[in-house]
Sequence to fold (50 residues):
Amino acid sequence: MKTTSEQIILVTGAIEGIGKQTAADIARLGATVLLHGRTQNAVPLSERNL
Fold:
């Protein structure tokens, strides 16, 4: 299995709530996080907040 820093993880619902917190936690562990949300304009805002 790859180490956390070698993983790329897709988080759906990453704009708010549990998905946003999950993405932040995963990023803190060193993985590359791909964010997905229903509102395209909100994804860059969430990305900056990580």
Observations:
- The mean pLDDT is 87.
